[in-house]
């Protein structure tokens, strides 16, 4: 266990300076600024990956395997090649020889995607693997030619049945290079001795990604450069990976992604990128490849199924003496992303004993990947349902039970929390939701043929800050500031919020800030994932701002009111710098630059390593409240009210944050009631690869969602903020399930909770 280190409470990094933005109570921080890209979106002028025009472009379509494992016996492409408009049919026989795909983030051993060869041989590894690519003059001609390809297979026995694979044996899973196993005391013994206990198994199905914008690339080989218009949440990683595969230097691959129509963990590098680039190389023409909705299910991985045991032992007052969260998930032999469902439990409750363990099996399937709050989304479903079961057992209010088990420090790492105000979130949420009106007796409240119930659950998601951030900042004499960073705007409001914070930091109006992102040639290796992009950009901006101030002071020299000041004594306001405690000692940027005879000043810097996560246990928190109505005749469940009460540090922009919270909660409602990949366990085929048969919430399914927050800054993060992207989906599934139990008396432990399970 790591040891806590005493540090100054106002340093956001261990031993460092406080971020002045943490306490900015006036100005732009915390203002509900509307999205700067809003007009572009509503007028249809924001360009997406499949909309970039390129001269002489051809269109691509893919043929997919219909068996899970084996080899291609025959592959007849003659008719496809002779079909109208066809420019190329690429198969493993004709594809260029490629280097293996490095496992994404392989150093951290947390891989989305996989390291299988891409169309290099006749081997088949999953049902849906690309077998051939057609390029044609039109999309229709490409799609038609695909239908003319004839394949026969030599199938081999494949492992596609989760339960059978489990019966054959499991092994301990690892996430980010760490085994998914924690133990404190002997939890099994404590459970056996506990006067009150619950011990149950919860199952969650596979989920597939369904961003509205299909995965797409428009790309071209331009001389020695591969230029890729993509829909990406990690442009720099994508460029690096393509460079490895095609044996290019990183500078020879340019990946841009100005707008992303939904990512959720899926907009990373998959086989279709490599296939489009390989086919384009063969024909020497630009290629547009848009996966069909079915294609997204065949090529882009999703969330793995889980079978989770949660066992809780408590004393008669509801204090936990044993907390066991264990179970099994599935991955493939060729990727490294088990669904890490114990992560939320590590820091959840002050139990005397704890046992956490994830076992994995390996199946012959498409490599699974990140999906909004991997681990926490389904892990909190099991954990927080079990808490509700214990509350019912004990006759203690479920909110009160959680507060009674609030830990003083992180129960598995022993680290102090950077900031944890979940009790405030519970109290504010319960008050606003009208929790005191809940009848604890299940099945007791009825409105005509509808049974009505309320449930609650804790949501949680860790604060991360990935290494690799960097930013460039240019200040011009006419008062503009230009930020360059290889970050992403997927609809979260990143560009808006960072423009806000940069304006505040520099003492400039927002109109004077240009925030450039979504281009792999810009500084930094920042991914929009793990709800950490705001922190990663924020830390980079602090570093580059500090460097800018130091260089401006040098330029200002001895003839300035700032003469002799050190960078740490200086702050920004009114388009210039001033002494923090004597603001009349002030000079504008324009004045400093003109006296130095400079048109502009450009600096670039990288932040320190993310050591804060070694010193503090850092998490966003939420208290989720749900009211459901379940039809007593048909079993139809309907969420009628929902409130999320969040503790995510400083909220930088209430409008964009509220939208993130609501989006996550809507995904959580889908997780609770609808989402399920129908996977034929006999042959590994996804049987519902369409939005007609894979159900997600639509407008009619979603009531008004109320969101509130503590807005208490976290002193150990840039700007005092923690992540808001993924937490909304956490806890929500359990809040819905617990409300359904309260409404009906039926405890459904198998997601999704469809009406057949409630009849
Ligand atoms: Mo998220 S699943 O880290 O894009």
Feature tags:
single chain, 759 residues, alpha+beta, Aldehyde Oxidoreductase, domain 3, Aldehyde Oxidoreductase, domain 4, six-stranded mixed sheet, 17 helices, 25% strand, globular, binds dioxothiomolybdenum(VI) ion
Question: Summed up, what is this model?
Answer:
This protein folds into three domains: 49-157 and 212-262 and 267-299, Aldehyde oxidase/xanthine dehydrogenase, a/b hammerhead (Aldehyde Oxidoreductase, domain 3, Alpha-Beta Complex); 179-188 and 303-464 and 614-757, Aldehyde oxidase/xanthine dehydrogenase, molybdopterin binding domain (Aldehyde Oxidoreductase, domain 4, 2-Layer Sandwich), CATH 3.30.365.10; 466-609, 2-Layer Sandwich (Aldehyde Oxidoreductase, domain 4), CATH 3.30.365.10. The protein is built from 17 helices and 32 strands.
């Amino acid at each position: 266990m790591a040891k806590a280190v005493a540090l100054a409470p106002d340093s956001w990094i261990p031993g460092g300076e406080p971020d002045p933005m943490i306490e900015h109570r006036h100005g732009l921080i915390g203002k509900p600024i509307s999205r700067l890209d809003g007009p572009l979106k509503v007028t249809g002028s924001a360009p997406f990956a499949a909309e970039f025009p390129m001269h002489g472009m051809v269109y691509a379509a893919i043929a997919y395997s219909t068996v899970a494992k084996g080899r291609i016996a025959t592959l007849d492409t003659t008719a496809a090649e002779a079909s109208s408009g066809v420019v190329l049919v690429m198969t493993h026989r004709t594809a260029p020889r490629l280097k293996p795909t490095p496992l994404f983030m392989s150093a951290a051993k947390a891989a989305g995607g996989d390291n299988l060869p891409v169309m290099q041989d006749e081997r088949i590894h999953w049902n849906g693997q690309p077998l051939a690519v057609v390029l044609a003059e039109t999309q229709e001609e490409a799609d038609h030619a695909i239908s003319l390809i004839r394949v026969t297979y030599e199938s081999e026995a494949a492992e596609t049945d989760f339960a059978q694979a489990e019966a054959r044996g499991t092994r301990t899973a690892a996430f980010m290079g760490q085994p998914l196993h924690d133990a404190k005391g002997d939890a099994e013994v404590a459970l056996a001795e506990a006067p009150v206990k619950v011990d149950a198994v919860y199952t969650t199905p596979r989920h597939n990604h369904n961003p509205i914008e299909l995965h797409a690339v428009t790309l071209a080989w331009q001389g020695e450069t591969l230029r890729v218009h993509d829909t990406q949440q990690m442009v720099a990683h994508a460029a690096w990976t393509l460079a490895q595969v095609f044996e290019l230097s990183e500078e020879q691959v340019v990946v841009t992604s100005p707008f992303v129509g939904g990512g959720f963990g899926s907009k990373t590098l998959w086989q279709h990128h490599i296939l489009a680039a390989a086919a384009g190389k063969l024909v020497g023409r630009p290629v547009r490849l848009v996966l069909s909705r079915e294609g997204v299910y065949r090529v882009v991985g999703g969330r793995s199924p889980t079978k989770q045991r949660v066992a809780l032992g408590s004393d008669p007052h509801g204090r936990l003496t044993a907390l066991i969260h264990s179970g099994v998930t599935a991955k493939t032999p060729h990727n490294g992303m088990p669904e890490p469902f114990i992560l939320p439990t590590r820091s959840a409750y002050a139990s005397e004993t704890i046992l956490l363990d994830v076992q994995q099996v390996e199946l012959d399937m498409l490599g699974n990947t990140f999906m909004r709050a991997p681990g926490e989304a389904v892990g909190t479903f099991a954990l927080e349902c079990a808490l509700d079961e214990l509350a019912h057992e004990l006759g203690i209010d479920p909110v009160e039970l959680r507060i009674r088990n609030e830990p003083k420090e992180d129960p598995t790492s022993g680290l102090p929390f950077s900031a944890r105000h979940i009790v405030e979130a519970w109290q504010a949420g319960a008050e606003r939701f009208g929790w005191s009106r809940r009848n604890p007796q299940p099945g007791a409240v009825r409105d005509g043929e509808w049974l009505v119930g309320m449930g609650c659950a804790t949501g949680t998601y860790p604060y991360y800050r990935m290494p690799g951030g960097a930013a460039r900042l240019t200040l011009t004499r006419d008062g503009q500031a230009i930020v360059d960073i290889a970050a992403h705007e997927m609809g979260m409001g990143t560009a808006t919020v960072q423009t806000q914070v940069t304006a505040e930091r520099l003492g400039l109006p927002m109109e004077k800030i240009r925030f450039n992102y979504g281009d792999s040639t810009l500084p930094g290796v920042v991914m929009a994932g793990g709800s950490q992009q705001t922190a990663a950009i924020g830390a980079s901006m602090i570093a580059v701002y500090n460097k800018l101030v130091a260089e401006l002071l040098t330029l200002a020299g001895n003839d300035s009111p700032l003469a002799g000041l050190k960078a740490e004594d200086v702050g920004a306001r009114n388009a210039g710098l001033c002494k923090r405690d004597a603001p009349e000692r002030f000079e504008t940027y324009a004045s400093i630059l003109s006296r130095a005879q400079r048109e502009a000043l450009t600096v670039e810097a990288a932040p320190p390593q993310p050591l804060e996560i070694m010193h503090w246990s850092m998490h966003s928190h939420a208290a989720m409240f749900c009211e459901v109505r379940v039809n007593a005749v048909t079993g139809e469940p309907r969420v009628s009210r929902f409130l999320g009460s969040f503790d995510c540090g400083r909220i930088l922009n209430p409008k964009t944050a509220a939208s993130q919270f609501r989006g996550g909660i809507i995904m959580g409602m889908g997780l609770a009631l609808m989402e399920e990949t129908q996977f034929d366990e006999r042959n590994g085929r996804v049987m519902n690869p369409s939005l007609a048969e894979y159900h997600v919430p639509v407008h009619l399914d979603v009531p008004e969602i109320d969101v509130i927050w503590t807005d208490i800054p976290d002193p150990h993060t840039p700007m005092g903020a923690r992540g808001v992207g993924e937490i909304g989906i956490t806890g929500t599934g359990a809040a819905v399930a617990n409300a359904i139990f309260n409404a009906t008396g039926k405890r459904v432990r198998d997601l999704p909770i469809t009406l057949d399970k409630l009849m």
